[in-house]
């Protein structure tokens, strides 16, 4: 039997605390070639901290981080050649044109002229920025700016690309275009790790880690995670009294309540679902079973985990 492929980027049971605040509480993650792994969670879940640890930008208190099987402290050139990184606040040079920004990063990566021109042409084509080559980066739309940032991170042809919430502040059309671009790179064999707070983006990943308080709540493919949700999900009829909805939010038999269009979705504790359904019937509130989604799963896992204090 053949051995599993070596991870391009891997963290194993990493921990990190800042004073009394625990940023990472032992999560593990591995990224392989040709897969798109999502880190999903609310603000403060530990997504950026885990990414910074993976990129060698932050030391960890315990656990290990490796690049292509080499520990970070010995990775050196391996890390530089293997990894591409786009932080949450990516700073291009606003006064430089698209072409000039690419040229700068090409020189930073030490690319030969021939290699740079070949890769620049390909990336400009993939990002559809050919017609904006002379435009200053500061004059680009949010979506075009992010595409240029990704192109700069990929100039040296890394095998792994790490993106920290790349679509924040980007309009829906540009978000869709950015994700189409990521799929193209995955098809080329690039491993991509992306942090996101959007559940529709999480559903596009080949594998997910749901993070909260620096820990992994669940891991797997989007479909397997949703299929594993045993808690019933219902949708209340439109026009349900806001007062009744507020009461449901404090009901210990309810895990999560969230708006959904003109209705309300409710995730119930499996063992107490009948109790809630009886209360709905007594109040004359209509409801129907709903197909669970990633948001339902995440809200349920968030509410069902024990509360933790500072550590």
What would your notes on this structure say?
This protein is an alpha/beta fold and 311 residues long. The protein has two domains: 217 residues, P-loop containing nucleotide triphosphate hydrolases (Rossmann fold); 62 residues, Alpha-Beta Plaits, CATH 3.30.70. The protein is 36% helix and 25% strand. It contains twelve helices and 15 strands. The strands form three sheets. A six-stranded mixed beta sheet has the order 7-8-9-4-10-11, sandwiched between helices. Strands 1, 2, 3, 5 and 6 form a five-stranded antiparallel beta sheet that branches. Strands 13-14-12-15 form a four-stranded antiparallel beta sheet. The protein is globular. The chain starts with 8 loop residues before the first strand and ends in a 7-residue tail after the last helix. The C terminus is likely disordered.
Radius of gyration: 22 Å
Let me know the average pLDDT: 90
Strand arrangement, largest sheet? 7-8-9-4-10-11
**For this structure, what is the CATH homologous superfamily of the largest domain?**
P-loop containing nucleotide triphosphate hydrolases
Which structural class do you get from the secondary structure elements? alpha/beta
Q: What is the CATH architecture term of the largest domain? A: 3-Layer(aba) Sandwich
Tell me the distance between the termini.
43 Å
Tally of structural domains: 2
β-sheet strand percentage: 25-35%
CATH topology of the largest domain, what is it called?
A: Rossmann fold
Low-confidence regions? 306-311
Q: Please give the CATH class of the largest domain.
A: Alpha Beta
* Sheet with the most strands, sense and barrel status: 6 strands, mixed
- DSSP summary, beta strand count: 15
Shape verdict: globular
Number of helices: 12
What is the succession of H and E elements?
Answer: EEEEHEEHHEHHHEHEHEEHEHEEHEH
Residues in helices, as a percent range: 25-40%
């Amino acid at each position: 039997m053949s051995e599993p492929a070596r991870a391009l980027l891997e963290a194993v049971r990493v921990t990190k605390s800042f004073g009394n605040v625990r940023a990472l509480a032992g999560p593990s993650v591995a990224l392989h070639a040709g897969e798109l792994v999502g880190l999903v969670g609310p603000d403060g879940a530990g997504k950026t901290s885990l990414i910074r640890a993976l990129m060698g930008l932050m030391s960890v208190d315990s656990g290990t981080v490796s690049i292509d099987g080499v520990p970070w402290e010995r990775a050196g050139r391996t890390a530089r050649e293997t990894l591409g990184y786009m932080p949450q606040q990516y700073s291009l040079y606003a006064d430089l044109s698209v072409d000039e920004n690419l040229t700068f990063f090409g020189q930073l990566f030490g690319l030969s002229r021939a290699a740079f021109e070949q890769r620049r042409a390909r990336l400009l084509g993939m990002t559809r920025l050919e017609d904006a080559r002379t435009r200053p980066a500061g004059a680009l739309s949010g979506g075009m700016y992010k595409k240029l940032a990704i192109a700069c991170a990929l100039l040296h042809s890394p095998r792994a690309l790490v993106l920290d919430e790349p679509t924040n502040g980007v309009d829906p059309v540009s978000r869709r275009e950015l994700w189409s671009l990521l799929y193209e790179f995955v098809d080329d064999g690039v491993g991509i790790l992306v942090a996101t707070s959007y559940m529709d983006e999480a559903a596009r990943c080949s594998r997910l880690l749901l993070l909260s308080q620096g820990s992994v709540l669940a891991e797997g493919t989007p479909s397997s995670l949703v299929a594993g949700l045993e808690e019933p999900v219902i949708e209340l009829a439109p026009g349900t009294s806001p007062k009744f909805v507020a009461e449901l939010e404090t009901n210990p038999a309810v895990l999560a309540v969230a708006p959904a269009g003109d209705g309300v979705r409710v995730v119930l504790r499996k063992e107490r679902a009948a109790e809630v359904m009886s209360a709905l019937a007594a109040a004359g509130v209509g409801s129907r079973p709903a197909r669970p989604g990633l948001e339902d799963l995440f809200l349920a896992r968030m509410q069902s985990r024990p509360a933790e204090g500072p550590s």
